[in-house]
Amino acid sequence: MQSCTSQPSSNVPRAYIPDSSVQASTSTSKQSIFVRTAIFSAVLLPVALVPYFITRRGMLMLRHQVDELQRSTTQLHRELNLTLSSLAIAKEEQKRTRALFHDIMENSDDIRQQVDIVRNNNNTCRKDIHALITGTQHMRTQAAALTALGTSLADIAGFMHEMELETGMQSLSKYSQRRVDRLRILALRLQNLSSSPQQPNAGQVSLSELLWNEN
Question: Which domain of life is it from (predicted)?
Fold first, then answer.
């Protein structure tokens, strides 16, 4: 009886018989895989994240530097524009200064020419004034000479008349009387000419005419 009952159990396949050891080994292997994965992740994740954070930090620093460079470039561009504007203004001022200097030089040449003209005119005026002064002095000298000559002729005529009265001579001949009258008239004209020196030619003509008529 016992053998009959135990025989069928020995013929049952092992796959269909629950095995607690197999289940335990399976759960153990799963736990070991999970632990290995966790350990690997715990080791690998920091190793992978550290370069990421370092790279991210470097990128942020580079981005900050790029922003600073961009701001500096913008500021330099503005300063360059201001410098170019100032340079353009300076060039315009330089052009205006050159044009003004050119105008001043031309005006200086014109003024120099005008000064030369005025100097020449002054020299001409001085020469004319000197000639007028010389002519006036000459005319005064001639007037004084004519006055002296007129006075001398008047004295001669008076002397001749006094001599005629003192000697009791008869009246002079008509020719002699005419000569005495001419001397008196000539003396009067010479005295009149001395008072108006602006017409010396008239006195000279009258004197020459009288002397010619006298002869």
Answer: Eukaryota
Q: Print pLDDT tens along the chain (215 aa).
A: 344 444 444 444 444 444 555 555 666 776 777 777 777 777 777 777 777 888 888 899 999 999 999 999 999 999 999 999 999 999 999 999 999 988 888 888 888 899 999 999 999 999 999 999 998 888 888 777 777 777 777 777 777 767 766 665 555 556 566 666 777 777 777 666 655 544 444 444 444 444 444 44
Quote the Cα angle for 156-161-163, to 5°: 95
Q: Give the angle 187-190-196 at the CA atoms, nearest 5°.
A: 150
The answer to whether 183 and 213 are in contact (CB under 8 A) is: no
Q: pTM of this prediction?
A: 0.38
CA distance 88 to 93: 9
Distance, CA of 99 to CA of 93 (rounded, Å): 10
